Structure formats: C-alpha cells, structure tokens
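Saturday, quiet lab. Running sequence design on the structure tokens for the scaffold JK sent over.
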C-alpha cells in the first residue's frame, strides 16, 4: 500500500508538471502571436510588450550586443521606421524547452515579408515568468 501511494503521488506530480509545461508553452506562443500582430502593424512599442522592460534585457544580433529595453526599442525604430520597412512578421517555432522552473528557451525562424525586400533569419530567445507574465529576457537573432 505504501508503494502504491508513492506511485500515485509521483504520477500526480508528473501529470501536473506536464500540464504546467503545456500551459506555459501556450502562454509563450500567445505572447509571440501578439508580437507578430503588433510588428505587422508597425506597432514597435506593442511588439516590445513581449520583452522585459528592464536595463538588463539583452539583445544580440548582427550589430552586436544591445543592453536594455529602451535601447532595443530605439534600435527597432531606427531600423524599421515605416510599415514598408517592418512588413509582415511570421515566426516558425522549432522548439520550446524548459530551462528551469519559470524559464524557457524558444528556437525558430522569422520571416519578414516587406516592400523593402524580404528579410529572414533564425532566433533563440529566453522567456522568463516575471510578475505572472512571460517576458523575453534575452534574444539572439541572426538574419
């Protein structure tokens, strides 16, 4: 009976953990869907809602390392000032995996369809649950 109770407890914990991971992944995908929509409307501030609004945010791209939410937004505004520049954003997700409790990495491709010429690339982003919301704390994108 003792072993049966232990087995039942482990099964419940395992199912609960699996349910939480599925829920976390869906919430992360929801953030990314909102980002696609905001970007595609040239709403760069809306796109940045998916990022941690903190000086410790890190973005690594073709121009090197950018630190901080404000600087990342300023870089986006400079590089994509109009709808023709920002175009329509689509993500293709290849993997979402837990790193530790409350954080995940997401690997995928991004596709920008735009009048100024399409731009595509790959990314690895790290999401962390901060104050009950999933936020990107680090982003490495290459195009």
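Result came back. Writing it out in full:
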């Amino acid at each position: 009976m003792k072993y049966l109770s232990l087995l039942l407890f482990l099964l419940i914990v395992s199912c609960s953990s699996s349910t939480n991971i599925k829920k976390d992944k869906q919430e992360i995908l929801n953030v990314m869907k909102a980002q696609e929509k905001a970007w595609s409307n040239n709403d760069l501030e809306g796109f940045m809602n998916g990022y941690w609004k903190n000086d410790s945010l890190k973005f690594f791209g073709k121009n090197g390392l950018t630190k901080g939410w404000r600087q990342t937004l300023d870089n986006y505004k400079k590089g994509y000032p109009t709808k023709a520049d920002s175009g329509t954003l689509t993500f293709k997700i290849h993997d979402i995996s837990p790193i530790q409790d409350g954080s995940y990495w997401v690997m995928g491709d991004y596709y920008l369809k735009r009048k100024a010429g399409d731009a595509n690339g790959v990314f690895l982003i790290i999401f962390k649950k901060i104050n009950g919301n999933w936020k990107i704390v680090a982003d490495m994108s290459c195009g």
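Notes for JK: Strands lie at 58-61, 64-67, 88-100, 103-113, 119-130, 133-142. The first strand starts at residue 58 and ends at 61. Ask whether to fix the surface positions before the next round.
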